[in-house]
Each structure stands twice: as structure tokens, then as C-alpha cells.
Amino acid sequence: MADRGVVYIVWGEKIQPILQRSIASVNRLHPELPIHVETIAPDSTLLDKARMHRLTPFEETVFLDSDTVVLGRLDYGFDMAARHGLALSICECPWGRRYGGLEGDIVEYNTGVLFFTEKAHPVFDAWEACAREIDSSILFYQGTRLVRMPFNDQAGFAKAVDDTGFNPFVLPFNWNFRPLWHRSFFGPVKIWHDYSDPPAHVTQWSLNQSDPGAIIQYADLGPRPDGQ
Known about the structure:
Layout: E1 4-10, H1 16-29, E2 35-39, E3 60-64, E4 68-70, H2 75-84, E5 86-95, E6 107-116, H3 121-130, E7 138-142, E8 145-149, H4 153-164, E9 169-170, E10 184-186, E11 191-193, H5 200-209, E12 218-220
Parallel strand pairs: 1-2, 1-3, 5-9
Antiparallel strand pairs: 3-6, 4-11, 5-6, 7-8, 10-12
Helix pairs in contact: 3-4
């Protein structure tokens, strides 16, 4: 078993171009890392991500959603997973109670970038056990219209972390950068998480800010492209 590696879980053919973009970005920054692409049944859903711990061939894994672009070295994320078992970022919406099956101030994490080792398997076992049982639907506004997303994988993950009492290492959102909501930031973006390509100036900024001698600076992406 390889020590460290990258895992993707994919289903259907439409994701292939965006997956290849992500793989290419890993190869540019981490040519030494093996990559495992697990192709599951075409009728799979986000809820099937809950079994990623049983699909990885690595001792230390970073799971990446296919719509990610790696812009910086990931060594620190792996190191923190080796130390704590699980390293991740809090979701751009941190309130787990937006899901029908959660309440109180339970924290929602973004499962699109997860560094983990076997130490975190109790969390993943709990996630897999509850993923299809919990009400993971979300009510949200699309403009002025109230709509419902029928399910999402992150509700079960939030519940699993809370139920097991596991204490993950929390990485700053630069490690799971969601440009529609993260419009300003300090320092380099490590992982761009969006179907859109990272703008050239963000890629160059992150490269410059990754230099050990760089003075960490503030960047602002400006208004959202959708005007909201």
C-alpha cells in the first residue's frame, strides 16, 4: 500500500473533462503522488462518497471532488491528517441546521477536500451508516423562489463528526476555496473548488504567495460574477 495518494470517486461520463483538469493540476504540483480514480455505478449519488474510506488504497489519503484544481503543495494537509486522523475545511455555509435532520449549532464541513488516515475510520463508518437515513434536504432561496435540494452528503458527515466526538484538524478555507462565496482571502489559494477555471491572476498570485519568503498579502476577487 502506498503511503500517500489522491482519490477521486466518479460516476457518469459528463464529469470526465473536469476530472482530467483536476488530475492534471495534481500532477503539476505533486508528480510523485499516485492517483486512484474509483468509478462507481452510473446511478450513484453524492451519498456514495460516504464509503470513500473503503475505496482508498492509500495509508494517507486526500479525497478530491472532481471539480477541484490544486494550486499549491498539499504536504501540510497530509501531515495534519497523519497527526490528527482527519484534516478538512469548514463549509462556506457552516450551519448544519440548514438540513432537515440536523439542529442546534452543529458545524457543517465541506467534504470536497478531505485528508484522512485510518484513525478517522470511525467517522467514516458513522457517516456511511447515517448517510441515507438522515434528512439531508435543504431549503434555500434561488433568487426570490424557495426551492429544496432533496439530499446532500455533508449532512451525514456533520452528524458523524458530532456523534463520534472526533476532533478534526481544521484547515483555512484556502484549502477548499469556493470562489462564489469566498471573495477575499489572505495568502495563496491551495485548492480551487469550482467548475469554473481559476483565473490566471489567482493562479499566479497563489504561486507568488507560496514562496517561503513572500510577504503574505490580502486579495479581493471583487463582486460575484452573478451579481448577487
